[in-house]
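Morning!

As promised:
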Amino acid sequence: MKNKKLIIIGTLLIAILAMSVGYASLATTISLDGTTEITGTWDIKITNVEVVKVSDGCTAGEPSFTDNTVSFAATLNKPGDEVDYRITIANAGTIDAELDKVVFDIEQNDVKEIVYQVTSPADELPAGETTTFVVNVIFDKDITEIPSSKTRKINGTINYVQK
Amino acid sequence: MIIFNDQIIIVLIIYLLCKIFGKLETINLIFWLGLLVYYINYQKRHYIRKVKDKKYIYYGLIIGVISIIMAFNSGYFIGFVKSPFKHNLISIVKNSCQLLIPIVGIELTRNILINKYKYNKLSRVLITILLILLEVNYKISFNGREEIFKYICADIIPLIASNILYSYMVYQYSISLPLFLRLLDVIVLIFLPQLPCSNWYILGCMSLIKIIILYGFLKCLKAKDKRKKYKSFAIVNYAFVLLLVTSLVAFMLGLFKYKPVVILSNSMTPLFKRGDIVIYEDVDPENLKIGNIVLYTKNGKNIIHRIVKITSDGFITKGDANNTVDDKIKEGQIKGRYLGRVKYLGMPSVWLYEFIKGR
């Protein structure tokens, strides 16, 4: 009986130790999200960010992302240049969700020549489905003065809540 | 096996197959409601009597409250986030139906089947496996080994461990224990506007620590029921193990002043190497000097290098074994200052990292 108890407790402790080893190897940043352990699960996150369009001579920096934030830098050379990023979000849980807020901002946006536009999909994101946002970063066609710095870093947050 | 001739088992297996191979969300609720109606006629007298036993309801409420206290106290250390659930009346009713009815259905099923096959250990094991399979989310897709690892830690291991505990509770005590435990967890989840933050590691570890505590509590109850005194040194040992494990989890999460990080490269050789664990502490960037070794983040990755130059707008760092300096970093990127290292302790993490990343 005592051995049985030791085996049970020992197994649970070994599982916690194994998770700690895994966490130590994967913990680059702690991303916090709301997940439940019951029959209904909440699991919505950004699964991919990719560059889908780049004007000639422009540079689209490698995007980085967490579960609900995205960050990328684009260098545009002349008016009319543009770069498009496609953000894929998956609802891997079992609860239907709807878009709560989409917030994007440009770092060091003291000059307004480079702007962005976000094309949002439908607000609803049913369980098990994926959706995509497209962020179009564009060098304003109508400006007459070219700024010295033509690289802009854009950060975004996309939040969903239960439908 | 005799259990495979059981009507309920057959229905559950068909439901499980539909869940794995088909889209079943819409009839999920109808299935469990139907099963509950069936159980109203099926429940034998002694099961109902056991459910109504005040002692077990009392125990069920106690372990439910322990579970909630544990879950929510973690929020004071890690922080809280807005609940993803809506809180208007319609949403609360909808969520209650969607989340509570399947739980009641599963626990009543467990109660009937475990009590029916009470004297056959293999049957009880198979019933528990079937109930675990019924709760797995089969729609999930993975993008690489890292996601699979996190899913196993956060969902599968706690699911298996908790179901074994629930079956044990039903076998030894009463359905009231797992039923109240699970219902209270979900009710709190539905109603509270703020929930504790969590990631896969917190979810997995908290679930297992909760199971260890509940298992200990049940052992105390059993001793009390048999009018034996639970040995005080056993409780002390138990509390010590729990304290140790909880401290380990808090340490890994960086909740203490001193925090660990596993070294994955040799850029700071010979001071520390790949596979060592480095301990660092929080630091005010104004107190940093040339020669200090700092941990900072860049593009979501942790880097630990030595400061070689301090400028008006940031720091320039370099790995001791590198030929060139790194890009300039700003104060906000610095997470801590190096204190010391433990040789080779991080090797299992390195091996796991290589496996998960497929290297």
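Chain B touches chain A through 77 residues (CB under 8 Å).

Hope this helps with the figure draft.
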